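Contributing new records

If you add data, match the layout below exactly. Sequence lines come first and carry their own label; structure lines follow with theirs. Keep one chain per record. Anything else will be rejected by the validation script.
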Amino acid sequence: MKVLVLNAGSSTIKYQLFAAGAGQERVLARGMVDRIGQTTPDHAAAVKKALDELQSLGEIEAVGHRIVHGGEYFSDPVRIDEAAVERIRECATLAPLHNPPSLSAYEACRERLPHAVHVAVFDTAFHQTLAPAAYTYGLPYEMCARHKLRRYGFHGTSHRYVALRFAEIHGRPVEDFKLITCHLGNGCSVCAIGRGRSVDTSMGLTPLEGLLMGTRAGDTDLGAALHIMKWEQLGVEAMDSLLNHQCGLLGISGVSNDMRTLLECAQNGDARAGLAIDVFCHRIRKYLGAYFATLNGADAVIFTAGIGERAPRIRAAACGSLEALGIRIDPARNDSAVGCEADISADGAATRVWVIPTNEELLICRDTVRCIQAG
């Protein structure tokens, strides 16, 4: 079976075409369309560009779509039909940077591949194992129950993949380890994984909570948002747009949401770009410490996604001053680990630090085949 996987992020679409069967997968093609909204107009155009690249590779029988938010509706992959589309659209208010683009990508793909089976795989599914103490907000209980307000968490496929890959590298089951996984891209999250299960994660009801991100503020006093709405006379929709599109690295630096650009600017003396980077790394350190306590220790910290895999300076700064947790990085190993699997820990460090490139597409392929076989 030929399975196309579309992984739509807020500013990218990664894709892989697999030949899947007999419990094995072979990659036939892969690629990425990035900087959507800049060099490529939108996600539909990005999908068309990807399919044009794949048009000579024969019939695609199934398509697995990464969908960020499934709310309380979905805890497993599902075939996409009109009812599923409506549910995904309902959850768009909770993931406005992702669910709408993912639906746009699905519709563009369905138009070109009408005979393929389309399956949705949800980022939120991995975090369904969170305990009530981890997912409950300090808001009126009845109100939360009525509106389904709780921590859902995101990047679940990525966190799950790097945890499984770490266990595979070490030749042991994932249940043997306590891991802290850091998915750092335009969107960022940290996950505490105990015995193969998500115990806590930094994103919440929506992807707005947690780490500083490309255009999202991350953890922010709710009172600050209320004051901005009052002083700037912003309505709910305008405030929602500001929090999702004008904050984070972009908001602090005033230059860019792209870490590559900010690192260059900071090196050239741009103080606000430097401040944005400092805040970004400070937030990561805070979560590493918190999740070390949550897990009562950790065997390893794993960095993944675009920034996590390709920015040694960020990894070094994020892990600085954590010697008390057994975290020490070897500078040479760190600098040479760009886009590849590597143990970047210093010799003798009690808590290992790894770089493991994520492969969400592989797990989405497997989930897609499993969903189809289940009928």
